[in-house]
Specification:
- With 188 residues, this protein is an alpha+beta fold.
- It is 23% helix and 26% strand.
- A 6-stranded mixed β-sheet has the order 4-7-8-9-10-11, with helices on both faces. The chain has a 3-stranded antiparallel β-sheet with strand order 1-3-2, with no helix packed on it. Strands 5-6 form a two-stranded antiparallel ribbon.
- It starts with a strand and ends in a 5-residue tail after the last helix.
């Protein structure tokens, strides 16, 4: 990740700035540029959102959203996939989904890009857990590795194809293996 010069700004000042592509996050007074998603990242993100929503949306359990700005706890971050329990989805007076999300996702999924700092991404997952998140995944396509973060537990590193990757506290019907997640990268 590329940081802008050392001058710090407030969260309110950051939120006044226009959105950029690729997106920028606000962490500890600094603006951090996220890398532009590449092919493997985009494919895993697309498949995860569809897979999670297939088992959670119609049942009104949760909703998975891509690249959603979440501002809470002094940070403004954009996880690759943010999953919110249905009853926590912010809505407008007319019942439509709100544009502003001022809470940690219940489940944060990050897909590591080649030039991205894994420590920065893990820091964002831990920030979500420290602010009420139920879990987080870090998916590393280069290593065929999924790390699972849960509150008050050590992270689990899953790298065998048959290892199950679950989020039982939020999506008990979701059944994936590491092999399935990285199998999505095959075309043909």
């Amino acid at each position: 990740m590329v940081q802008t010069p050392a001058k710090t700004i407030t969260l309110a000042e950051f939120l006044q700035q226009p959105e950029t592509k690729p997106a920028r996050e606000y962490i500890d007074g600094h603006i951090i540029q996220k890398p532009m998603p590449q092919g493997q990242h985009s494919r895993i993100q697309q498949k995860l959102i569809g897979t999670v929503n297939a088992v959670t949306e119609d049942a009104r359990v949760a909703l998975a959203l891509p690249e959603l700005r979440c501002t809470f706890g002094g940070r403004s971050i954009i996880p690759d996939v943010s999953v919110f329990r249905w009853q926590r989805l912010p809505t407008n007076d007319d019942g439509t989904i709100a544009n502003t999300f001022s809470a940690a996702p219940d489940w944060t999924i990050e897909i590591l890009s080649p030039e991205q700092s894994s420590t920065r991404v893990v820091s964002n997952i831990l920030h979500c857990l420290n602010h009420g998140g139920l879990g987080g995944w870090l998916i590393d396509p280069n290593e065929n590795l999924v790390q699972v973060y849960l509150p008050d537990q050590l992270p689990a590193s899953l790298e065998e194809a048959e290892n199950e990757v679950t989020m039982t506290g939020l999506a008990p019907a979701l059944a994936l293996t590491v092999g399935q997640v990285f199998g999505w990268l095959r075309v043909g």
